[in-house]
Amino acid sequence: MKKTVKRVLVIAGLVLAAAVIPLVIRIATVVRTMHAMTSIETSEVVPDVFAVRERYVNLFLVRGPSGVIAFDAGINPDSVRNQMKKLGLDPVDVRAVFLTHGDADHAGGLAAFPNAAVYLGDQEEQMIDGRTARFLFIRNKPIGNHGRIRDNETVEAAGLKVTAIHTPGHTPGAVCYLADGGLLFTGDTMRLTNGKAGIFSRAINMDSKTQEKSLRRLAGLTGVRAVFTGHFGYTEDFEGAMAEFRK
To answer: For the whole model, what pTM was predicted?
Structure first.
């Protein structure tokens, strides 16, 4: 009897270890990735484009002819408001928020923008309505009232035209946005390392192979004046950044 109990305990321990060890390794990789992030200080990074920094993530604001639009919403509404004050910008003047995806560090600060229409990629609905888990049993929260934006759809806000580009990989419905004809906002579709684009993070992505295909699609864009990422800064050399994905 004692041998049977001991054998059962050993097997249970091995099963638990098999489940826990990969999880611990993944968490450690995520932590290393976060420490490597190089978000931009709150500032005007190019004319009429402003970075708002919350810890390890950036959202971006673009000033148009008739107001301001935002790409992503940060983590915490109060922090977003405080950072925008440093720029002399008022969240109530934001006419639209274009979410690259539904993760909390990109959508958590939406309450800072009471007058903004909110857009989310139509394929990302599954990530905020409970259908698809972000990781294991973890699910993203709903984001309230919002409109769905389709691949290649163009929306006008604050006098600026914004076109959605479906770039799955980080999440199934991740979207990049091309604004004002040449400003590309990528969220977590890429990282920048020494000015070169790469896969965001295999530990955090839901499908890195698909993200690579998305990066190859982005590499085919023309006329991009600058590209802005959610965690790894920006570059005004889009051609050089994307050279690897044109091969």
So the answer is: 0.89
State the total domains in the chain. Answer: 1
Compute the C-alpha angle 140/146/150, nearest 5°: 90
**What sign does the dihedral 171-36-217-148 (CA atoms) show?**
positive
Report the C-alpha gap between 211 and 25 in whole angstroms.
22
CA distances from 135 to 130, 151, 201 (A): 12, 25, 14
Domain for residue 28, yes or no? no
CATH number assigned to the domain comprising residue 230: 3.60.15.10
> Distance (Å, rounded) from C-alpha 84 to C-alpha 53?
9
Residue 216 resides in a domain: yes
> In 3D, which of 164, 233, 176, 231 has the Cα closest to residue 204?
231
3-state secondary structure of 6: helix
Handedness of CA 144, 135, 36, 28 (dihedral sign): positive
Phi-psi sector, 217: left (phi>0), alpha (psi -120 to 50), beta: alpha
Cα–Cα distance, 105 to 116 (Å, whole number): 18
Residues 6+ apart with CB under 8 A from 2: none
Structure-token pair, residue 132:
């698809």
Parent domain of 102: 37-246
Mean pLDDT, all residues of the chain: 91
Angstrom distances, CA of residue 12 to CA of 17, 24, 25, 149: 9, 18, 20, 47
Tens digit of each residue's pLDDT (9 = 90 or more) over 126-162: 999 999 999 888 899 999 999 999 999 999 999 999 9
